[in-house]
Amino acid sequence: MILLLSLVIAVVFGSGAFLILQRDLFRVVVGIVLISNAANLFIMAAGLTRGAPPIYPLPDGATVADPLVQAMALTAIVISSSVAALLLSLVYRLYLAHDSVDIEDVSAAEVREAEALERGEDPGREEMPKGAPGDVELREDTR
Amino acid sequence: MGSTLLAFAVLIPWTLAAALALADGRRPSVGWISVAGLGAGFACVLGLTFLVLRDGPVEMVAGGWPEGVGITLRADALGVAFAAVSVGVILVSLVYEVLDGVRSRTFPALVAFMAAGLSGLFLTGDAFNFYVFFEISMTSAYALTGYREKDFQVRAAFIFAVINLLGSVIFLIGVAALYHVTGTLDMETMAERAGRVQPSSIISIAVAVFVAFSLKLGLFPFHFWLPAVYVGSHPPVAAILSGALANIGGYGLLRFGADVLPRELELGTAAVLILGTASIVYGALQAISRRETVEVLAYSAIGQAGYILVALGIGGPVGYTAAVVYAVVNSLNKALLFLAAGARGPLVGAAFAVGAFSVVGVPPAAGFVGKLAMFRASVEAGSVALTALIFVGGALSFVYAFQIYQRVFWTPGRKGEKASPPSVRALILLLAGLVLAAGLWPEPLLALGEAAAGVLVSGP
Q: Has domain A2-100 been given CATH number 1.10.287?
């Protein structure tokens, strides 16, 4: 049982890690969801015990199931699903701006924007000063 | 008295955030309400700090449950030190943005959520609760990074969220594994029982926890996300991320490393010292080679995180004192520098220079106290190499700090640049004054650092 559970967790985590390394942002989000679920499985596997439901009054001499693990897994599920929603909204926002969910396209669009900025077409963006060589290097860092 | 303050320190930002979420944050009145509420929360944390330093740790169990069943809130010197500086930095950044004009309706609510998460995180005694508060502050940080919704900010927010979620999941796995081997989530009990667990099983847990917090702190091999995010963020957001949120990493390493898993930390001393050294050197060299102010500051943050790690590696009362003092001073410096770098006009340059002096460690700025504590720790450790490293790190930071000063404040202003409102500049000067004051009168800071180190050393 332990071997089976750890295999399942490893496969889920591994496929999540594989998806995170893709260029398609939707796949990255799905990867994150898979990895969070691997963590939930891990929590369950770490403390799953068989027994009576842990509700007072306890039956005499019976072992009760550990409620803490289930509470932890529930909380973790809520957190991971809400963060997944946030990530999806960020992807949608990028999709609206660039008509693509490919990180390459998004970066390319930003480089074009920075070049336009250099020609002085949009002086409103103060956060990225003109012609700083750091701009392009930064993009390479984050790819 | 103590437990009331403890409850309010967590509750006030919490209810404030929930209420603000319904209001339109762009209206100045809402902005000032958020400042007042967060100020009240900050006052509670300060009062709590005073009480903890005078009478020792304060503890309470939420919901009136018996001890060992309910979730404990525990304020000791280590927790309140980090809580005070983090909530303080958040408050200053919020005031800055309110004075400058909030552009998004959710900004005050998100900042209040961040404060709620951070104060809860530093004041909890329960490992899983730590994770929950940690996720609350991280989630608001993801949303804050995208503040102003420019494309590169949204992309920075996405990268930030993905990388840090990965870190959170690794931490969650670490917590679940710790629960499995110790059978408890209470950190104090966990620390007691961790000593009796098979070393082979707990060492991998320690590595997972270390990786998770290094990712938050932006230490050398885990730093790759950090420059993009800091450069993309709006100045007060960058100040919050670097001055408040990064404290999670430092605090987590101290709490879980030195307090809960001290034997494993000792075992990994060499790795910790090497990674710290690599961070210091890499951060400083990268910072020197960059031209853009915010980027230099971002790499500087990587270097400064290295000092905290080196202090942690040295260990003992002196090393932990140095780590806490350095973390607190570094938060103040980074907040001051990011805010000053975002403003323009007379006297902003002076405030920036104070921050730059402080990063370098020139007296009378607060950075001197931090550097001095580091030197003391390295001399105590009897290591010539570490002392030399801290000296070289300081010299390199001198180079980059004054490179940006020269580039930004000694050149004529760019066309169409407006000076920031006088109130914003006054706020930055106030923060600069605080940094100077902490350097001129370092006793409270040192007392706080020593008390915090006492918590870690006397631990089970």
A: yes
